[in-house]
């Protein structure tokens, strides 16, 4: 079960709440930059927020969906269980052997 849209929105909120400086930066984006990209200021802001979220996930050595789970899981155990479940789904969709997949991504079951 991949992270839901609701989980992702909750994770973005937690992420932003923990970074007041990013919130200020996002609230003060140049509207001309959004216009130049053919986007509304809200779309442009959302894109910058998602970029910051993905950059933080990368910095932590995670996929963005893993950071979403990490920020929304009730406990570390819940996070690990959900993370493994999603990885299993990905391996299955890719038609990969689970042990081979674990080795490729450094997972321990």
TrEMBL record:
Domain of life (superkingdom): Bacteria
Matching Pfam families: DUF6388
InterPro entries named in the record: DUF6388
Protein name per Swiss-Prot or TrEMBL: DNA repair protein
UniProt organism field: Pseudomonas izuensis
